[in-house]
Amino acid sequence: MHRPTLAVALLSASATYAAPALVARADIKCPIVFDGRLPTGSDADPSWLDTYATNAIYNPDYVKGNDIKWSEILKWPAVEASRFDGTNFIPFEVTISDKSIFQKQNGFRRAGLQFLKDASDGEGQKGVKTLHFSVKQDSARPLNLTHEYLNAWHEAADYSSNQIQFQTGQLIGKSAADKNNFKILDRNGKSLYSVAINTSQWQNFAIKLDYTKNQVQVYYSLGQAELKSVAGPTSANLAGGGQFQIGILKKPTGSSDVVNTGYQSKNLNEGQIYGGVFLEDSTNNCVSL
Ligand SMILES: *[C@@H]1O[C@H](CO)[C@@H](O)[C@H](O)[C@H]1NC(C)=O
Ligand SMILES: *[C@@H]1O[C@H](CO)[C@@H](O)[C@H](O)[C@H]1NC(C)=O
């Protein structure tokens, strides 16, 4: 049976301290700033996701369809744990459907998780921090790569741009040649790293953001392999504070006002599986690999 009070205690603990070393597949070796991993057992009754009283990990109210809850949006795929989840944490799948309309943004279909404690001028925007996430594809809920997707990003506090963006699909106005790739872009749309989507394995990404030097470094690995530096450090303008967001934002086709209008197919049932989501403190070049 699911016990909410236990879950809350567990979640608060995991948000504050590094993961217990004994069972993790790969240890997180740097201080965790925000822990977005979901504890094993937290899928039994996911209603804890929907209120501030019970969700110490993610903002229960944002950024999602007006008439759907996180306990309905997240699915629990039976896949092996990702590299930094071990046995204490479980993979989860962020899904989008026809209900994934946030406020009046009729062009987008979106479901984006925000770390609960991430504030526009807070710890996530200072010093040197590394965002980790692993992704896996669900053949039952494939993305439609004719569209542009924004899956993980850091949005500036004034919402005018994203300092860093992890995307896939056909980027609007760009070549379709790499539509099957994951792409990490800077705020000006310059590609920093690109790699083909793998439909069977976990793909592990880490993006080191040096706010003091305005530099980005990208780390990557497949499956359970150790991450390796694959790009940078590269100069990138990281100014402007803001927040991280992780999930799916699917842009429409055939529109120059993508937020509000454009084509989205009906009966949408798409998902992106995530694991090993956390932000770590990379002071002194500490990065968990
Ligand atoms: C993918 O998106 C395109 C453009 O919206 C649409 O025409 C097509 O039917 C979609 N394919 C699937 C399998 O949904
Ligand atoms: C996924 O990665 C595995 C292991 O490297 C490789 O054998 C396979 O071809 C890749 N599959 C796809 C669809 O990318």
Task: Summarize the topology.
Layout: H1 4-16, E1 32-35, E2 38-39, H2 70-73, E3 74-75, E4 89-90, E5 92-96, E6 109-113, E7 128-136, E8 148-155, E9 162-169, E10 181-186, E11 191-196, E12 203-210, E13 215-222, E14 228-235, E15 243-250, E16 270-281
Antiparallel strand pairs: 1-16, 2-4, 3-5, 5-16, 6-15, 7-12, 7-16, 8-9, 8-15, 9-10, 10-11, 12-13, 13-14
Residues 144, 146-147, 253, 263, 265 line the site of one 2-acetamido-2-deoxy-beta-D-glucopyranose.
GO molecular function: hydrolase activity
Protein name: Glycoside hydrolase family 131 protein
Domain Glycoside hydrolase 131 catalytic N-terminal: 32-283
Structure description:
The protein is mainly beta and 289 residues long. The protein has one domain (3-7, 24-285): Sandwich (Jelly Rolls). Helix content is 6%, strand content 35%. The chain is built from 2 helices and 16 strands. The protein has helices spanning 4-16, 70-73; strands at 32-35, 38-39, 74-75, 89-90, 92-96, 109-113, 128-136, 148-155, 162-169, 181-186, 191-196, 203-210, 215-222, 228-235, 243-250, 270-281. Strands 1, 3, 5, 7, 12, 13, 14 and 16 form an 8-stranded antiparallel β-sheet that branches. Strands 6-15-8-9-10-11 form a 6-stranded antiparallel β-sheet, with no helix packed on it. The longest helix is centred in the first third of the chain and has 13 residues, at 4-16. It is globular and about 50 Å long. Residues 1-24 have low confidence and may be disordered. The site of one 2-acetamido-2-deoxy-beta-D-glucopyranose has 6 residues, from loops. Residues 32-283 form the Glycoside hydrolase 131 catalytic N-terminal domain. This is Glycoside hydrolase family 131 protein. It holds the Pfam family GH131_N.
